[in-house]
Design goal:
about 160 residues, four-stranded antiparallel beta sheet, 2 helices, 9 strands, about 5% helix, globular, disordered C terminus
């Protein structure tokens, strides 16, 4: 699988130190059969989600766990704007656990120089925010330079708890 994430920059918002205002983002997951013998065999688009399409609540109206951790972002006139629409995202990671290929994890920051960051989990298939967690490594990752690596170690930790 492959993930493509594009942030949409609001025109005319370039600021000091390369800052800019985000006007949404798009995430797309792609796949192709693992046994593809031909290098040029086509990739197929699995899911495409735009920030404004992501629901922050489930079908019963319950807000995604941790959503309150995200800051309220204001427009130029001080009015609140949808947080997921304005937040910078990067470092897309797919869930590695078998059977769930639709959860995408993204690092989220108010802007790329911000000292705080969160990891948001997006259900790509249902276009729903699954949860938000504070990312403790934010102070050491200026901008969106590499911040973490994915691993399958968690699937082994559950097996060891009973030992």
């Amino acid at each position: 699988m492959y993930v493509e994430v594009e942030m949409h920059v609001r025109p005319g918002t370039s600021g000091p130190n390369g800052s800019f205002t985000i006007d949404g983002w798009t995430a797309v997951t792609w796949s192709r059969p693992a046994d593809s013998a031909k290098e040029n065999e086509c990739w197929s688009k699995d899911h495409e989600v735009r920030a404004h399409e992501v629901s922050t609540a489930d079908s019963e109206g319950n807000t995604a766990p941790g959503f309150e951790l995200l800051p309220t972002l204001l427009d130029e006139e001080g009015r609140p704007e949808p947080t997921l629409q304005r937040i910078h995202v990067g470092h897309p990671k797919l869930r590695l656990r078998a059977g769930d290929d639709s959860t995408l994890y993204l690092m989220a920051k108010v802007n790329r120089w911000y000292d705080e960051a969160w990891v948001i989990a997006v259900d790509m298939k249902n276009k729903r925010l699954r949860g938000v967690a504070k990312f403790g490594g934010a102070p050491r990752c200026t901008s969106f330079i590499s911040a973490y690596s994915q691993s399958r170690i968690s699937q082994h930790l559950n097996n060891m708890q009973g030992d």
